Amino acid sequence: MPFYHKLGSIPPKRHIQFRKPDGSLYYEQLFGTIGFDGMYTNSYHEQRPTQVKAIKKQYSVSPKIAFQNNIKSYRFKGFLVEPQKDYLESRKTVLVNSDCSIVLAAPTASTQDYFYKNTDADELIFIHKGSGKLRTMFGNINFKYGDYLLIPRGVIYKIDFDSSDNRLFIVESRRPIYTPKRYRNWFGQLLEHAPFCERDIRRPQELETYNKSGEFLIKVKKRDDIIEMLYASHPFDVIGYDGYNYPYAFSIHNFEPITGRIHQPPPVHQTFETDAFVVCSFVPRLYDYHPLSIPAPYNHSNIDSDEVLYYVDGDFMSRNDVEAGHISLHPAGIPHGPHPGATERSIGKTKTEELAVMVDTFKPLMITEEAMKIADETYYTSWLE
Ligand SMILES: [Fe+2]
After folding, report:
1. Distance from the CA of 124 to the center of ligand 1, in angstroms?
2. Rounded CA gap, 118 and 107, in Å?
3. What are the GO BP annotations of this UniProt entry (predicted)?
């Protein structure tokens, strides 16, 4: 996140002696991105963060692809994904390309006897159902319904859930996820016209520091493999850190919609960007106020991007028969638009209560076997009268 954050104790300068009460040194770690050119954090550990004791197992969790080169519109019924106790096993990749994976998960329990780290993808976790605490090496963040949790690659974490009823929509991104550049000034500060500002960004506030030795299992995801690494020190042993690279939360309910006299294009809903896809938030808002306005969107061809819409709550004005937890996939190359009757139905409406998350990818998405288990294969004909 491009603003400075500091938590815990740090020395007055980088890379100098920083001593514990007993006179020994804390162990500094530079946690950087984009070579040494991107956002970074300097953290101070009770023990060396490098003490690998054993590599227990390595296994593939590569999603099985059902369709490549897809040009069919699909609807997937996300709430049909089976709840599972284990956090990692509960994660089902439904759509994937070389830049990102779109994952649904219904974990029924907190992460138990292991820590988790994704080494080469940022994780954006949208909380559709559930609440709890994200616990990381950089401190903790409480979360609830409507939160996006952005966990940069390399951050070691656990998730504690308050109950067993949880539904997550996750984007794993091999490209770094940022707030849109056009929302920020030269200095990185969010501009006046941005639909959210720094006050809406919740940074880690509670640092758990354990100076413990023993055996600590970190399940590390690298590409499509999980590697079970046993460390000799507790991964949450940071006494303090500062910098720009840390996990944070942003609630979709704090996204201030931008509206107009006539229909506004999807970019006004943009919340996050990468160089390979965008994430947009559709939130309750007033409709267009031109006297002849048509609130429903026009038919549109996303010639060069696949459009994934995850329906969260409220009424979905442009679609018939779409429910919370559904995903629509409108692939690049063909037009899509309102269902029959939806355009006419929208005229005269003054507001919407819809809540949805959209992911538009520039490269086409492949459909996995997990997605086909929850697919409505007749959706592509749903625009017929
Ligand atoms: Fe669309």
Report:
1. 21
2. 18
3. L-phenylalanine catabolic process; tyrosine metabolic process
pLDDT over 70 (residue 317): no
Q: Which of 263, 269, 290, 330 is catalytic?
A: 263
The domain over range 49-64+80-238+246-252 is classified in CATH as 1.20.1560.10: no
Q: How far apart are CA 54 and CA 56, in angstroms?
A: 6
Rounded CA gap, 221 and 120, in Å? 8
Per-residue pLDDT reduced to its tens digit, 121-171: 999 999 999 999 999 999 999 999 999 999 999 999 999 999 999 999 999
Note the pLDDT of residue 319.
Answer: 74
CATH number of 257-381: 2.60.120.10
The predicted-structure confidence for 73-106, as pLDDT tens digits, reads as follows 999 999 999 999 999 999 999 999 999 999 999 9
Q: Which helix (H) or strand (E) holds 30?
A: strand 27-32
Query: Residue-wise over 336-373: b if at least 16 C-beta within 10 A, else e?
Result: bebbeebbebbeebeebebbbbbbbbeebbbbbebbee
Q: What distance in angstroms lies between residue 318's CA and the mean position of ligand 1's atoms?
A: 10
Both tokens assigned to 35:
């070579």
Task: Please tell me whether 306 is known to bind a ligand.
Answer: yes
Q: How far is the CA of 385 from the centre of ligand 1 (A)?
A: 19
Where in the sequence of the chain do the CATH 2.60.120.10 domains occur? 49-64+80-238+246-252, 257-381
> Residue 25 and residue 16: Cα distance in Å, rounded?
10
Write the pLDDT tens digit of every residue in 329-362.
Answer: 999 999 999 999 999 999 999 999 999 999 999 9
CA 95 – ligand 1 centroid, Å: 17
CA of 183 to the centre of ligand 1 (A): 22
Judge contact between 179 and 254, C-beta under 8 A. no
What is the number of residues in the chain?
A: 385
